[in-house]
Design goal:
Elements lengths: L1 H24 L6 E5 L6 H17 L3 E5 L6 H8 L7 E6 L1 H4 L1 H4 L11 E10 L1 E5 L8 H10 L5 E4 L5 H13 L4 E4 L5 H6 L4 E5 H9 L4 E5 L25 E8 L4 H16 L1 H8 L4 E2 L4 H22 L5
Parallel strand pairs: 1-2, 1-3, 6-7, 6-8
Antiparallel strand pairs: 3-10, 4-10, 4-11, 5-8, 5-9
């Protein structure tokens, strides 16, 4: 009887394992939900829908984009962190949800490092330090010289304390030993920048380019390692402060216990999307670059950016709780 019991339990265990394996290998067999932490029509929503449309065709199931704006992407992250780890609920978020938010919010209801795993990157863009055409500085070198001559006189606007537009300039100030007054905004600082009420703004290139092209704004510096092809005359921040280089990027994450084969399948499809010529053109037409990285490369990029931003946040004692 004991042997019989062992055989039965062994068969049951094998059957259950087989069913579990079948469930993961059968993925996907129902609609996938992509939760976006920003409102419809915003850049994260636009790119989430582009990639979801491509992945839906490749995977053969519908993919529903669910906008849950609030708390700089933290609301959507909390929803996905608590969702079943079965590959049917994914998070589309800015990288800042993993590289800045953990440092400026001390009471998050989830752990970004433990509750999520990277799936795939989608796009990246540099930021441009812009000013109004009448501002005295013509280059980033001019700005640094002016700020050194008149500490605390010139201003840099941002989309709020702890935003990339804030922290990148704090990094510049720290490394170049200058003092500028930070002016955080709840809404867009662009009207005040163009009107001369504030002097500078670190703006994503997708929204900066129309202002620069029309002559309403002047570019002083670009945030990525190399100069932007559309702005060949504009120096990089690294040309003034060696090593100062950063991009804004988006990605997709999943709950931590999501099966590896599901994560790998998703990554394969999404990387393929970034490399697809038609898809890449649609993305570049929006003044940004497709970014298709492996899951390991994505994790390394999160760590690299988090090391930089975490240090700045701690040095400046920035909190949003």
């Amino acid at each position: 009887m004991r042997l019989k019991f062992q055989l039965i339990t062994g068969l049951l265990a094998g059957l259950l394992c087989g069913l579990a394996g079948a469930q993961s290998t059968d993925w996907p067999n129902k609609p996938i939900r992509v939760v976006v932490g920003f409102a419809a029509g915003t850049p994260p929503d636009i790119f989430a829908r582009l990639y979801s449309e491509y992945a839906s065709k490749k995977l053969g199931v519908s993919i529903v984009v669910d906008n849950k704006p609030g708390a700089a992407g933290n609301l959507s992250s909390d929803i996905v962190a608590k969702a079943p780890a079965d590959g049917y609920t994914l998070l589309y978020n800015l990288s800042t949800g993993f590289t800045i938010n953990p440092f400026i919010y001390s009471k998050l209801p989830f752990d970004p490092a433990k509750d999520f795993v990277p799936v795939a990157t989608t796009m990246r863009q540099g930021l441009v330090l812009i000013t109004n055409p009448n501002f005295q500085a013509k280059t980033i070198g001019d700005l640094v010289a002016a700020a050194k001559a008149k500490p605390g006189v010139y201003t840099h606007a941002s989309y709020g304390a702890g935003s990339p537009s804030h922290l990148i300039v704090e990094w510049l100030k720290e490394e170049s030993k200058i003092d500028m007054l930070h002016v955080p905004y709840r809404a867009s600082p662009i009207p005040d920048l163009l009107g001369g009420q504030v002097d500078t703004l670190m703006e994503p290139i997708a929204t900066a380019m129309p202002l620069i092209s029309s002559g309403r704004a002047k570019a002083l510096a670009y945030s990525e390692t190399a100069r932007h092809p559309s702005l060949p005359e504009v120096p990089t921040l690294a040309e003034v402060v060696p090593g100062l280089s950063v991009s804004s990027w988006h990605g997709i994450w999943a709950p931590a216990a999501t099966p590896v084969n599901v994560l790998n399948r998703l990554n394969s499809v999404l990387v393929e999307a970034s490399k697809d010529p038609d898809m890449a053109k649609r993305i570049r037409d929006l003044n940004v670059e497709p970014l298709g990285l492996s899951r390991a490369e994505m994790a390394a990029m999160v760590k690299k950016d988090a090391d930089v931003f975490g240090r700045i946040v701690k040095a400046k004692n920035i909190t949003l709780d």
